[in-house]
Amino acid sequence: MKAILVREFGAAGVMRLEDVPSPSPGPGQVLVGVKAVGVNPVDTYIRSGTYAIKPSLPYTPGADIGGIVEATGVGVTRVTKGDRVYANGTAEGHGGYSEATLCDESQVHLLPDRISFAQGAAVGVPYGTAWRALFLKAKARPGETVLVHGASGGVGIAATQMARAGGLRVIGTAGSDRGLALVREQGAHEVLNHNDADYMSRIMALTAGRGVDVILEMLANINLDRDLEVLALHGRVMIVGNRGRVEIDPRKLMGKDGTVLGMTMFNATAEERRAIHAALGAGLANGTLNPVVGREFPLAQAVDAHGAVMEAGAFGKIVLVPPGA
Ligand code: NAP
Q: Which residue's CA lies nearest to atom 30 of ligand 1?
């Protein structure tokens, strides 16, 4: 079968489509035929070799899969051959940029018929992160106001949909007109362009001077200090994304009894993951969660997809489609 292999860390060009042996499931494992695989920013950080997590080489990237169960190992009870599934994570030593891959049973979840495989590939990291950030870490409550600071990409769309469904007032930002239109379509009550000079002051106007209860921050190195100015009393800034250093004035936080939180999905416990995927499964089935796939690339063009995911002007999720999927 075909799979992307990374034999050395470096620029996107280190990803090559190669022929590799098809794996077979061991006890507790599931062989998933990959119909689509999500491209996450973290895939590019890991591939570059500069990220805290470094897989042993060679490796196949990709954690988020939409596909069909092709075979199950001894002891697997939650899914059976032919099931439509999404997977969040793969078994040690395997990856999703491939025609098929191995997952541990706990990583595989049933995909409702109303959700396409490409949408399934947009669920795991983005929706899992948004849920954990919003509800488990920032403890957002119905009736509160959330600023989804970077709402046009994978995590932001997910956060917008689930916050809206959960009874929060949602202010979402994007950096392009079509991104702003998309964020509004996904349920944001208000949208602002994070490239406009005065957009942060408009947040105070939109909240009658009170500020926002929760900020889901996708680019903390740019925004964190100004976030503290638009935080309501007892507000929480939840850092999801960051690409550099930042200077803040802690006094702004003191005056609000505010909290700055950080998180990475790699720290999610098994119990949190069970809760998250139960919630996501329910939302995908009842129509409140609808992943948006902005672009599909053939698996052979993984290099281009890694370029695209780091460009400005996000429009939902980027996925790769293996040959014959
Ligand atoms: P994505 O699909 O590439 O979206 C990136 C988002 O950031 C877009 O909405 C983009 O808006 C926005 N953005 C760009 N400039 C911004 C600015 N100045 N202020 C606020 N937002 C801005 O990426 P993603 O998958 O949603 O992930 C978002 C970030 O979270 C990435 O840095 C990623 O590495 C990180 N992340 C962290 C975790 C974790 O476990 N902590 C998990 C998943 C993702 P425009 O393109 O419209 O300008």
A: 241
If DSSP codes are grouped into helix, strand and coil, which group holds residue 262?
strand
Q: Are strands 317-321 and 293-298 parallel, antiparallel or unpaired?
A: parallel
pLDDT above 90 for 82: yes
The string of pLDDT tens digits covering residues 49-71 is 999 999 999 999 999 999 999 99
Which token pair is 270? 């098994």
Quickly count: other Cβ atoms within 10 Å of residue 226's Cβ.
Answer: 15
Three-state DSSP at 4 gives strand
Fold of 126-266: Rossmann fold (3.40.50)
Ligand 1 pocket check for 235: Cβ under 6 Å:
no
Give per-residue pLDDT as tens, 131-152. 999 999 999 999 999 999 999 9
- Fold held by 2-123+291-321: Quinone Oxidoreductase; Chain A, domain 1 (3.90.180)
How far from 95 is each of 197, 289, 303, 323, CA to CA, in Å?
A: 41, 25, 16, 16
0.90 cut: is pTM over it? yes
The response to whether residue 302 sits with its C-beta less than 6 Å from ligand 1 reads: no
Decide: 74 and 27 in contact? Cβ < 8 Å.
Answer: yes
**Consecutive H or E run containing 110:** strand 108-110
Matching residue, tokens 């489609």: 321
User: Can you tell me which atom of ligand 1 is nearest the CA of 312?
Assistant: 46
